[in-house]
Amino acid sequence: MKIVVIGAPDLFDLTEETFKSKKIIVGYSSLKKINNSSYKNYKYLGKSIKKIIKKFKDINFVVGIADNLSRQKLVKEIKLHKYKCLSLIHPSVVVYKSSKIKENVIIHPNSIISSFAEISEGAYIGYNCLVGHDVKVGSYSFISPGTKLLGECNIGKNVFIGSNAVIFPKVKIGDNVIISSGAHVRNYIRKNQTVINSQSLRTIKNYL
After folding, report:
1. How far apart, in whole angstroms, are the C-alpha atoms of residue 190 and residue 95?
2. N or C: which end of the chain has fewer CB within 10 A?
3. Is the full-model pTM beyond 0.70?
4. Residue 143 near residue 165 (C-beta atoms within 8 A)
5. What's domain 2-86's architecture?
C-alpha cells in the first residue's frame, strides 16, 4: 500500500502508527513545498492530484485539512478519479463496538467514541475528544482537541468546533456552524451561526 498525505504534519506520524509501517508514505501534496522540519523526510509531490495519480499505481490518500469545505472538495476530486481516501484511527482511540464510523474519518490519539455514536464521512476528530453515547457527528465536521460532545447531542454537517468546547446532552448544532474554543453550548444552534465564547455566550450570524 502507498499513501499520499494531504494535511497537517502530525498526519505523518498518525498514518505510520495506524498502519504500523514507516515506509507506507510516498510523499505529500499541497499548494507548495513546505519548509517545516516535520516534512523534511517526505517527498513533495506537487499540488495536482491528476499528476500524482499518473505517477503512482494503487495509490491511496489521507486528507486531513482543517478547513471543512477544502477537505470535502479534495475528497470529491480524489473519488472522481476512482481512488480512495483512507480513514485513520489511532490505536489508542477507544471505539465502542456499537458505534458506527464511516469512510474518510480521522481520529487522533486518546479520543473516545462511545456507545451508539455515529461519525459520518469525512469527519475529523482531534486529540483527547469525547464523543458520548448516541452522539451524531455530521459529514465533514471538524472537532478540535479536548472537545466533549455529551450524550445524544447532534452535530450537523460542515461544523467547526474549537478546542475544549463542551456541547451539552441532547443539544442540536445545525449545519455550517462555527463554535469557538472553550464554549459551553447548552441550547440549539441554528445553521450558519457562529458561537463566540465570552463572558456572556452569544451567537452572531456567520457572514463568511
Report:
1. 29
2. C
3. yes
4. no
5. 3-Layer(aba) Sandwich (3.40)
Average pLDDT value for the chain: 92
Task: Tell me the one-letter amino acid at 71.
Answer: R
User: What is the three-class DSSP state of 68?
Assistant: helix
Superfamily in which the 90-203 domain is placed by CATH? Hexapeptide repeat proteins (2.160.10.10)
Ranges of CATH 3.40.50.20 domains, the chain: 2-86
Is the pLDDT at 22 greater than 90? The verdict is no
CA distance 166 to 118: 18
Would you call 160 helix, strand, or coil by DSSP?
A: strand
Q: At 198, is the pLDDT very low, low, confident or very high (cuts 50, 70, 90)? A: low
Cell of 197: 465564547
Element of type H or E holding 27: strand 25-28
